[in-house]
Amino acid sequence: MSGAGRIAAGALAAAAAGPAIAALVPPGVLLSLLAQACIYAILALSVGVLARQNGMVSFGHAAMFGAGAYLAGIGLGAPGLLPAEAALPLAVLAMAAVCFGLGLIVVRVHGIAFAMLTLALGQACFEAANKARGVTGGADGLTVALPREIFGLPAATFQRAEGMFLIAWLAMVALAALAALLARSRFGLLTEAIRENEERARFLGYGTVLPRAAVFALSGGIAAAGGVLYVLYNGFVSPETVHWSVSGSALIMALLGGTRTVWGPLAGAAVYFLLREQLVEVTERWLGLLGILLVLVMVFLPDGLSGLPRRLRRRHGAEA
Amino acid sequence: MSAPALSARGLARHYGGVAALRGVDLDLVPGEICGLIGPNGAGKSTLVDVLSGRAPGSGGSVRLFGQDITGLGPAARRHAGLARSFQRTSIFPALPVGAQLDLALVGPPRVLLLDEPAAGLTAEESLALADRLRELARARGVTVLLVEHDMEVVFRICERITVLELGALLAEGTPQEIRRHPEVVRAYLGSAAA
């Protein structure tokens, strides 16, 4: 089977697994947790796409996630202006466009400097969300009333765990499949080459800023899509959503899962949420335990959990 | 004479207060292999960097077959037909070989700047490389500027040699002329060539 065929088959199988999981898991806290996990998995996916294709580590992706949520929330709050069916995709496209413009500047910055730049930009957005009371509601946040129906589905579907889990699961699978297809396209190959040796790519005749900015835009659009689902589910968004600690959590999920594969950050998000659920039962210092786990993974599995199969195969191959 | 394959006029490049290139003129005849030699720090790599667009020049102009490429970046120069190699082996470490070839989409270059291609090779390998280079240049009609430390390689395949010293042109001529040029012998070849 061709690579694209494998991705399509994997995506279909994963999509089919969604209803099965929803049927097996009793409705309640766990399913609500899984719905949240899927939404944050989309944010982790966006962080992973940027790391995988551009080799860039972002400490500011909560800004794209939060901005997507705010834009969707503001759009839903003005139903006379735009139908919800237009406002939601528009929030994603607008963030992708903003990130493309921003990307033209920031992708020229590398390494730690880029990480610090994203941290600064992210915190600037946090401050803006706090200060622009007229638009964002300031520290009180923005409460969003959903219209009775969106895309033919009753509003309650989006705000109940059963409904949102399925919607977020399908969105997550679709976005991951899109990222995987793009990664194995010529464009994906080119961005990996630039990641490995930007100067060499330039001397092969490739402009390097536009492809990197396009990856940044894709990453920002995916993060914003996560934010749109977030505001639909919670009916509320506040500056906390834009805070750097959210960016940090997304980065931890991506690194736990590993960014060499597209699906790694999704696995990382699942582990993060399920583990946190277990750890808070044991100790309120769960974050410390998670930190220790992250250190162990980084030391013994630098490619993250998704690098484990490869590692086992190689060890197995060496013994055979 | 037809338009030079590559023509530089008054190329300058300053690093802070230090002038690495002070107004260098250079013309490559289409199809020739021109050697570029000079002692360490003469400005050879800087000249290749400015010619290839890797580093901006502080002054001067570069033309490729008559087309002014002074303001172009490396990618645009590559599309115009100018390619270069690097001293350090330069690949995409994490990509499979097939992918590396897939990425070489632009057609063969018309002018090739080679920065010490024989670095790290044994004397025997260097000469084999030199012969291959001469064959390739002839077969493809490529014009080559060859920066090389190995004098044997340079004298073996270059029709013309340019000598840089302290960022300026010291001499230019056929291998025979360069061998006998008193300034060159003093500045670069030293007693080894005597």
Automatic annotation (TrEMBL), chain B:
Output a single Gene Ontology CC term carried by this record. Answer: plasma membrane
| Domain of life of the organism encoding this protein | Bacteria
In the UniProt record, the signal sequence range is none
Q: Which residues form the ABC transporter domain?
A: 6-191
| SUPFAM superfamilies registered for this protein in UniProt | P-loop containing nucleoside triphosphate hydrolases
Q: Which SMART domains match?
A: AAA
- Entry-linked PROSITE patterns: ABC_TRANSPORTER_2
Which key words tag this protein in UniProt?
A: ATP-binding, Nucleotide-binding, Transport
For molecular function, the Gene Ontology terms on record are: ATP binding; ATP hydrolysis activity
- A Pfam family found in this protein is BCA_ABC_TP_C
Q: Is this entry keyworded Transmembrane?
A: no
The keyword ATP-binding is annotated on this UniProt entry = yes
Read off the InterPro entries from this record: AAA+_ATPase (IPR003593), ABC_AA/LPS_Transport (IPR051120), ABC_transporter-like_ATP-bd (IPR003439), BCA_ABC_TP_C (IPR032823), P-loop_NTPase (IPR027417)
Q: What name appears for this protein in its UniProt entry?
A: ABC transporter ATP-binding protein
Task: Write down the species.
Answer: Teichococcus rhizosphaerae
| Classification of source organism | Bacteria, Pseudomonadati, Pseudomonadota, Alphaproteobacteria, Acetobacterales
